[in-house]
Design goal:
globular, 63% strand, mainly beta, four-stranded antiparallel beta sheet, 18-stranded antiparallel beta barrel
């Protein structure tokens, strides 16, 4: 691991050093990224109409404690990592964007979800015994390379490749090994006939693949069972044994989701940024071969709008960002038999396919930032507020049973940051207030016909915890202090922050009421 870390840090420094400021002024990387229209849009062709240079490199460590956690989190975990990102013009025709990040996570007393991203996938797998806790370790790598080529003063082509890879292991029976890969490709075109207008279009292909394998290394003879969640924590239970169940103990089983889409961007007066995105989803869980089955197939679509309005006012900038997305996912389950052919070969023979789950997610956010005296290295002060909304509706039908599950949550933040320039350095304290609450229907079950079947199970232990985490009212705050020192062509900074969140009432199902996250970051802007 040490060699991988050193190689990553060496690669991380390279683009940042190449991107040293050409005009002698160092700018805060994230401020430039948030207030530059050509960098706000996700079309890689757009950055060809921006001539600046900016970069950053960071290393951070995060320590989290407290049992106010999602199912995939730990009440006692530690994460450390490093990242770098830069935009710079190589020549009059070529502009480059690069990003590289690495993180390592270790969490104690973890149990429950088998998948690395359980809330994202249409199906899920959970350990049946919540007492079988152990340490989970996760390592993630994220590499992005983008290139814009100016065809002339008005037209630009762009290409972007984002590749994410990771693995996760649980170091106690029942053990699970997860391998994650995500490839996101974009190719776009932008037209910029004047300073007052730009329009762009890009096509996108994304493949998100997570492979899962179970394992038992003890010799006690203990049986371990896996709960297969088909939606709303409703499904079947099977033993973790052999290679014909949903999770195999002899090889990895892929869960593959692929997206195909396009996005249209329009920038007016270099102040009003609009982006409309539509993507189709297709995926499956299982191994595609004559002898191994595809258990589930997925389909759906996503529509998203992202808008940003920049309002300069003297030395200040007002920034209003609105985001909206609506995502629909449906799941079909394949029915099949294993058939032994003459000669002894066993193949999979599919019989029927049935729709089991329809899920809809809606996300909305409105973010306001007032950057005061924003044209120096950093704003003299920043004041902001943010409101968020998320809603999920889900219907699971496993004949003759059905389950309706839905919830909504709203959240708000108030933010204040002030830069005190002491001459030899800057001290920048910030304070954020946080509030969140939710409501919904945890489960509404029924049957289409009377039945005495007991094959299907409700995984209430995990459902109760997740629903309470999603909807329980909470409040909190984050206090941070940044120490920054500027030089001629770069700025170094140290940021220390602590975030404390607490439920407003004692929890019924969660193991604790509070969560504290302490973080330290060392970075450099070029």
């Amino acid at each position: 691991m040490k060699l991988r870390i050193l190689a990553l840090l060496a690669l991380a420094l390279a683009p940042a050093l190449l991107a040293e400021a050409g005009d002698g002024q160092v700018r805060d990387f994230r401020l430039v990224q948030q207030t530059t229209p050509q960098l706000i849009v996700s079309n890689p062709a757009a950055m060809g109409f921006w001539s600046g240079r900016v970069a950053m490199v960071e290393a951070n460590a995060v320590k989290s404690n407290g049992a106010l956690i999602a199912l995939e989190e730990s009440a006692d975990d530690f994460t450390f990592g490093a990242s770098t990102e830069s935009y710079y013009r190589i020549s009059k025709l070529i502009t480059f964007h690069g990003k590289l990040a690495w993180s390592h996570f270790s969490g104690k007393d973890m149990c429950g979800p088998v998948l690395m991203r359980p809330d994202f996938h249409p199906i899920g797998f959970y350990e049946s015994d919540p007492e079988m806790v152990g340490i989970k370790k996760r390592e993630l790598y994220d590499l992005t390379g983008g290139l814009s080529l100016n065809l002339d003063s008005d037209w630009s082509l762009g290409f972007n490749v984002n590749y994410e890879a990771g693995d996760q292991t649980k170091v106690k029976d029942p053990r699970f090994s997860n391998i994650l890969t995500n490839l996101d490709l974009k190719a776009g075109l932008a037209w910029h006939p004047s300073r007052n207008f730009m329009v762009g279009l890009y096509g996108q292909y994304e493949s998100l693949l997570e492979q899962i394998r179970g394992g038992i290394y003890g010799t006690t003879g203990t049986q371990y069972f896996i709960q297969t969640d088909r939606g709303g924590f409703f499904g079947t239970v099977e033993e973790l044994e052999g290679d014909r169940n949903f999770i195999s103990d002899s090889g990895h089983v892929p869960l593959d989701n692929r997206y195909y889409g396009a996005s249209l961007q329009m920038v007016l007066f270099e102040k009003f940024v609009n982006e409309f995105t539509y993507r189709k989803q297709a995926g499956y869980y299982g191994k595609r071969s004559a002898t191994t089955p595809i258990f589930f197939e997925f389909g759906g679509f996503e529509f998203a709008y992202n808008g940003t309005l920049l309002i300069p006012a003297g030395k200040d900038i007002h920034r209003i960002a609105a985001d909206f997305s609506y995502n629909v996912v449906n799941t079909d389950e394949n029915r099949f038999n294993y058939v032994t052919q003459p000669g002894g070969n066993t193949i999979v023979e599919y019989t029927t396919k049935s729709r089991i789950t329809d899920r809809g997610d809606m996300t909305a956010a409105l973010d306001y930032r007032w950057f005061i005296d924003a044209y120096g290295n950093r704003p003299a002060a920043t004041i902001g507020a943010k409101a968020t909304y998320f809603a999920r509706t889900q219907v699971t039908q496993i004949y003759p049973f059905f389950r309706n599950h839905s919830f909504s949550r709203v959240g708000g933040e108030l933010f204040l940051e002030k830069d005190f320039d002491l001459g030899y350095c800057s001290i920048i304290p910030s304070l954020t207030g946080i509030y969140q609450m939710g409501w919904g229907v945890k489960k509404a079950d029924g049957t289409y016909v009377e039945t005495t079947s007991t094959r299907l199970k409700s995984f209430d232990y995990w459902l109760d915890r997740k629903y309470e985490y999603d909807t329980a009212a909470r409040a909190g705050g984050c206090l941070s202090v940044t120490f920054a020192k500027s030089f001629e062509k770069f700025e170094i900074y140290l940021k220390i922050s602590d975030t404390l969140t607490s439920l407003l009432a004692q929890p019924e199902f969660l193991a604790g009421r509070t969560r504290n996250i302490a973080e330290i970051t060392i970075g450099c802007n070029f």
